[in-house]
Design goal:
72% of the residues lie in helices and 8% in strands. The protein is mainly alpha-helical.
Length: 219
């Protein structure tokens, strides 16, 4: 297991796609904080670092789906997994070592983004409007989401030997999960009821407007 982890981490830190994803995460953090500051100050509003600080969470699954598919797909195309099995490594150890490395890759990408966002956002806009506990909990949540995305993509990439097919399946699945999560979030943030108005005609030909609170159904 230790040899598998050492070999995988060596491959990870030499992988160009991994470093491209990390650079993108870093540049995205810088770009979003600068744009947040410029747009809010141009409109005369007070900039808040909270507004777009955690927006990178949407990109985490997309980057991991592409990276993991290519990273693990190489083991099938190059015959690396076959060689590992031949020399006596168990399938469980191979899978766990790949999973640990992929989760670490996702955490490193998130760390690059958070470091860039902190380094640029705090000097420009000051402290968070939210409490420290909420900010910390959100950071942990983003890392947990990255671990979940990495686990799903690792499972699919290990089950599907075709690298191109695994890449397509992972990307489509991640987009599907993102759309579902956005829908669930919109539903959770919606008010429990809406106010409706209706016109009631009386016997004398007049009318009156009545208001009623109607619960919003789950659609």
């Amino acid at each position: 297991m230790n040899k598998l982890l050492a070999a995988n981490f060596s491959r990870l830190f030499k992988n160009k796609v991994f470093w491209i994803c990390c650079i993108f995460a870093f540049c995205y953090g810088v770009f979003m904080q600068v744009m947040n500051y410029l747009t809010t100050t141009a409109s005369g509003e007070v900039p808040q670092i909270d507004d777009l600080f955690f927006s990178f969470s949407i990109w985490t699954g997309i980057l991991l789906s592409a990276f993991i598919s290519l990273f693990l797909g190489t083991e099938y195309s190059d015959g690396t997994i076959r060689n590992k099995l031949v020399i006596g490594h168990r399938r469980r150890d191979i899978y766990l070592s790949n999973l640990i490395v992929c989760i670490t890759a996702g955490a490193v990408m998130c760390a690059f983004n958070l470091i860039a966002s902190f380094a640029v956002g705090l000097p420009l806009m000051g402290r968070f409007d939210a409490g420290a506990e909420l900010v910390f909990a959100t950071c942990i949540g983003i890392l947990a989401a990255a671990a979940a995305f990495a686990s799903i993509c690792t499972m699919i990439s290990m089950l599907c030997q075709n690298r191109a097919a695994a890449t397509v399946i992972n990307i489509l699945l991640i987009f599907l999960l993102l759309f579902v999560s956005l829908y669930i979030r919109a539903w959770l943030e919606a008010p429990e009821t809406i106010t409706t108005q209706s016109v009631v005609m009386n016997e004398k030909g007049g009318s009156s407007v009545t208001t009623e609170e109607v619960p919003i159904p789950f659609i």
